[in-house]
Amino acid sequence: MFAKQLSVFIENRQGRLGEVLNVLGQNGVNILSMSLADTTEYGLLRLIVNNPEMGKEKLTEAGFSSLLSDVLVIQIPHKAGSLQKLLKCIEAAGVNIEYMYGLSIDGAEAYVVMKASDVAKTEKVLSENGVMTLSNDRIKTL
Fold first, then answer.
1. Torsions phi, psi of 113, nearest 5?
2. Could you tell me how many helices (H) and strands (E) the chain has, helices first?
3. What's residue 84's pLDDT?
4. Pairing relation of β-strands 3-11 and 65-77?
5. By C-alpha distance, which of 51, 77, 73 is closest to 119?
6. 38: Cα separation from own chain's centroid
7. pLDDT tens track for 55-110
8. How close are the terminal C-alpha atoms of the chain, in Å?
9. CA atoms 88, 93, 95, 99: torsion sign
10. Residue 73: closest CA among 133, 118, 142
């Protein structure tokens, strides 16, 4: 199952991240995970939120440039080597992992957000290997 990631392009200047978070918070959009990468002039903020469509709408209204993209939110065991085992299966299928970052939901399992060059093919590989992914509907309940 795919999930929607909210990506926001922001100027790399003091207070801009706070402005994005303020818009989301004032509109009841809860952040479950985020990753911020920067250059000297701008930043790319990637978010997993409980309501990505609302987040995008409210950020657009506030003048921010944002987009929604399909990602996989993957549950893996908290066990050494689990992620590497999973990545080997994906690599064997000829899929490139473009980026990934952690997501914290509970202490029992580990979760990662993954963007792959072929999300549908990656989802198939994950399913064939018994790996659970979270949908937007499930994320909304967290």
1. -100, 130
2. 5, 7
3. 94
4. antiparallel
5. 73
6. 17
7. 999 999 999 999 999 999 998 888 889 999 999 999 999 999 999 998 877 666 77
8. 16
9. negative
10. 133
